[in-house]
């Protein structure tokens, strides 16, 4: 078993409120990602679960038992940090074996555990080498194997892939997902990288300024963001938000445009709204009835696609287009909108008006 539940966590450092009532439920065996920008309180949340800091308020339950007052050592959790130095004089094998040796596990058990973990991380051939004979990425794999070789109640991981180059990070995302599946262990994984969160998590908790904005599957968080902040934080390029209001059968933009009002748009006539449009749900090629007039503002070629910026009144729409798209800034264009996939928010509260009904 490895359930982790925290309730109403509060923690201030002097005048900084790092956690302002964080409640999370991590099911046994989940790959649970806590996603948020720098300073959101992610590390503080992990440290609270591990029992490393005294809390101002709140509780931590492990496997259903109140562990709030337990010392870190008896919580049976393994913390994996972004910087984990290897012992330079020891071989990779000895490094990986060290946590089990420290616990005086039998030699046969240690050998089997090292073999299994090095197989999962594809480092069998490196076991006799010392850290100085390994590349950075290989060292990181050995370090990860050393962290994962134990079988604690749950693994708490604080941005463990941050120091890797992009290619290796992408590879390790796949590896970690595979390792998680094969270990069947509970992972609580902290990151500020939304791609990491969306690609690896079963469940994502989005954290901002010490408060949980939304918890859901990656699809739920991306497709049905609870508010404008989550909508803007998750997704690249960021979602475009256009000021508008509903008027009978139409949405009317502050910039003067009109679009047919989608069936799910339950807003009151005149209510100040923000229409959220993701770049992939827009097109500069004419395809449908719903479209917005604009002016081409800029092109950002990204290899496999080009992001086209279109100015609509005072607002910029980001449109994902084919890499072959061409255009000249200042050119008049129309942006076709897939309204079935659009999002609507209350402009005052920022809360979604469409998330529940979709
Ligand atoms: N020991 C400390 N003393 C003072 N302030 C702290 C301490 N630890 C954290 N904070 C503050 O608490 C807030 C939350 O910090 P935390 O490290 O949990 O954020 P984070 O989401 O993990 O950020 P990052 O992604 O940058 O690691 C920040 O404003 C931070 O400056």
TrEMBL record:
The lineage of its organism: Bacteria, Bacillati, Actinomycetota, Actinomycetes, Micromonosporales. PROSITE patterns: ABC_TRANSPORTER_1 (PS00211), ABC_TRANSPORTER_2 (PS50893). The keyword Transport applies. One of its GO terms (molecular function) is ATP binding. This is ABC transporter ATP-binding protein. It comes from Micromonospora humidisoli. It comes from the Bacteria. Residues 4-234 form the ABC transporter domain. Keywords: ATP-binding, Cell membrane, Membrane, Nucleotide-binding, Translocase, Transport. InterPro entries: AAA+_ATPase (IPR003593), ABC_transporter-like_ATP-bd (IPR003439), ABC_transporter-like_CS (IPR017871), ABC_transpr_MalK/UgpC-like (IPR047641), Mo/tungstate-bd_C_term_dom (IPR008995), NA-bd_OB-fold (IPR012340), P-loop_NTPase (IPR027417), Transp-assoc_OB_typ2 (IPR013611).
